């Protein structure tokens, strides 16, 4: 196959198919490895207590106040950052105020 100058259509298809299979198998193994490592690391993280509205956290953040015409994209970014830091859903906490620090 490699001694010739050209490949037949069947040989070209076989080489292409082999390359595609190798790439996708690598991606599948990588996804499985990520799931396994994620599950192991999540076993070490302490979960926040599950509860009703009495256990909801109140979080104060420092950004621009909403009543002075703050950009909604900035508010969404602050809420997303707090959600990531708290490792919880947005429904599990309440932002009381947003104040800009200069």
From TrEMBL:
InterPro entries: Na_pump_deCOase. Its main location: membrane. It is found in: Cell membrane. The chain crosses the membrane at residues 12-34. Residues 54-68 have a biased composition (Polar residues). One of its GO terms (molecular function) is sodium ion transmembrane transporter activity. Residues 49-68 are annotated as: Disordered. GO terms for cellular component: plasma membrane. Keywords: Cell membrane, Membrane, Transmembrane, Transmembrane helix. One of its GO terms (biological process) is sodium ion export across plasma membrane. It comes from the Bacteria. It holds the Pfam family OAD_gamma. NCBIfam families: oadG_fam (TIGR01195). This is Sodium pump decarboxylase, gamma subunit. It comes from Peptoniphilus lacrimalis 315-B.
């Amino acid at each position: 196959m490699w001694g010739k100058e050209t490949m037949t259509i069947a040989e070209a298809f076989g080489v292409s198919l082999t390359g595609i299979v190798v790439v996708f198998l690598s991606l599948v193994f990588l996804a499985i490895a990520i799931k396994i490592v994620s599950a192991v690391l999540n076993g070490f993280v302490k979960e926040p207590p599950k509860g009703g509205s009495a256990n909801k956290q109140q979080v104060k953040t420092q950004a621009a106040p909403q009543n002075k015409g703050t950009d909604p994209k900035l508010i969404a970014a602050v809420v997303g950052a707090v959600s990531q830091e708290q490792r919880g859903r947005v429904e599990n906490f309440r932002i009381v105020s947003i104040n800009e620090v200069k």
